[in-house]
Amino acid sequence: xxSNPKSEIQxxxxxxxxxxxxxxxxxxxxxxxxxxxxxxxxxxxxxxxHQASAVEVYLCEDDYPGWVSLADLDxxxxxxVPYQAKLFSEFDIKKLLPEVIAFTQKAMQQPxxxxxxxxxxxxxDCSGLMQAAFVSVGVWLPRDAYQQEDFTxxxxxxxxEPGDLxxxxxxxxxxxxxxxxxxxxxxxxxxxxxxxxGIGIDILSExxxxxxQSYYQQLRGAxxxxxxxxxxxx
Length: 234
Description:
This protein is α+β, with helices and mostly antiparallel strands and 234 residues long. Helices cover 21% and strands 29% of the residues.
């Protein structure tokens, strides 16, 4: 009996797939709110949780979960080679930091706005920009700001060097992240209500403008990227 291609799309087999094009992942099977994005070439695992309108997946590189709309399932292709994390030493990463910084500065020159869940240019959220910048040199970070804070090596603000991450938020949790440049300045993607509605540069000081002051009041600390993320879910 011939298989039904439409049925196979709606009920994909469990396993690892690749994205031949940029793909949106949502935070629920309703597929109304963006959770993250998967750039062309990323790997994902389809789980057994299939709903009427979407299929639950998680991205292999950072273990991030989400839902793929049934309408987008035809974008997925079975992975011919399983994802394998690449290892980096702290020394390797330090040499790559100028390229990481250059990525964010180039991204800032493109027309952009703040997009919740955005990890594929030109529109990013805060942690999406950090993840994309490091991925541009092959180094993976976890997806969200609080996860990036936990993943990095904690450093004092006085020890900040170009390429370090700065975290903002509440005493309980990091809700925003930026990349340190030099001389007290950092680059980040910030929202409409408290920021630039896109990528901009601010100063880590209570003497800055309204946006800089607002973030400075939420300063939590800083972290240094000394390794590339290794998936935990296989």
